[in-house]
Write a structure and sequence with these properties.
Shape: globular
Structural class: alpha+beta
CATH architecture of the largest domain: 3-Layer(aba) Sandwich
Largest sheet: 4 strands, mixed
Number of helices: 11
Strand content: 15-25%
Helix content: 40-55%
Distance between the termini: 78 Å
Strand order of the largest sheet: 6-9-10-11
CATH class of the largest domain: Alpha Beta
CATH topology of the largest domain: Trna Endonuclease, Chain: A, domain 1
Number of strands: 11
Length: about 280
């Protein structure tokens, strides 16, 4: 039986491995670096998945960019992972140490010559009109849902054709969906609206989740480490939302998001309070 050669002109292309790409003499050095960076990231995520470190896997899946850059001071090639600001705040010292351990084990085995990993925030894209844009945002004219729909980046977290900005929002949505479809009766269930664009007097905001239950609307915000220094701002916003017709506003802590049992308890308490709100 004759075997069809792989990747012959006009024939079906066979999947290429990272080794195929990295060792291909026809591709550029930059493409080889990109392949090495993505290979390191993929092997790290897979190793952490094997260890059962699901929250760390979710963090790595939210990396906006992975790249290898030359460090002139140390004379080494380094791997850099870029994260959006909201995700970057989740990278505590304990988490980065676990990620570095996974990187070291993977890098030593793959032998790409990459010996160090760094984490940083994504650099915002600005133009000559940045002053006007920032002033508009400070005045409350910042677009929310509209900018997400036109953003060039493909959302990394999608379910039921709904986009989420991070894994925490997705986990809360999945828990609410379980309550909606599995525990609450069909004639008395909930509606879930992730990241709705809304306007209250003087401000445009985008709550993490809007939930409708028994004729009442409630807002759920998912707190992270960055919320601790914004408590006064959050409280003021909660008052505005209630004054504008939102029956109940509650917050889910980052600790609850990481514990399925605690998350479900928090959501049931939220629905009970929303139901009982006069």
């Amino acid at each position: 039986m004759n075997q069809q050669p792989q990747n012959v002109p006009g024939g079906p292309k066979q999947p290429r491995t990272y080794d195929d790409i990295i060792n291909d003499s026809w591709i550029s050095e930059e493409d080889q670096k990109r392949a090495k960076a993505d290979s390191l990231l993929g092997h790290m995520a897979s190793l952490l998945f094997q260890r059962g470190k699901i929250p760390l896997v979710n963090l790595l899946l939210q990396a906006r960019k992975s790249g290898i850059e030359w460090d002139h001071e140390s004379q080494t090639n380094d791997l850099w992972l870029d994260f959006d600001p909201g995700v970057f705040t989740e990278l505590t010292e304990e988490i980065t140490e676990e990620l570095k351990d996974a990187f070291n084990r993977v890098a030593n085995r793959l032998n790409y010559g990459i010996e160090w990993i760094g984490f940083r925030e994504t650099l915002p894209s600005v133009g000559p009109d940045w002053r006007e844009q920032l002033q508009g945002m400070l005045n409350g004219d910042r677009p929310t849902n509209q900018s997400r729909r036109s953003a060039p980046e493909k959302p990394q977290f999608i379910q039921d054709r709904l986009a989420f900005t991070n894994s925490g929002e997705l986990r809360v949505y999945q828990a609410l969906k379980h309550l909606q479809e599995k525990e609450l009766p069909a004639e008395e269930t909930i509606s879930i609206f992730p990241l709705p664009n809304g306007r209250v007097p003087g401000h445009t905001w985008e709550p993490d989740l809007l939930v409708a239950y028994r004729g009442r609307a409630g807002v759920l915000e998912i707190d992270g480490p960055h919320h601790r220094t914004r408590r006064a701002v959050d409280t003021s916003r909660d008052h505005l939302l209630r004054d504008a017709g939102i029956a109940f506003v509650d917050r889910i802590t980052v600790e609850a998001v990481d514990s399925p049992q605690e998350l479900m308890t928090s959501l049931k308490r939220f629905l009970r309070r929303l139901r009982e709100t006069a």
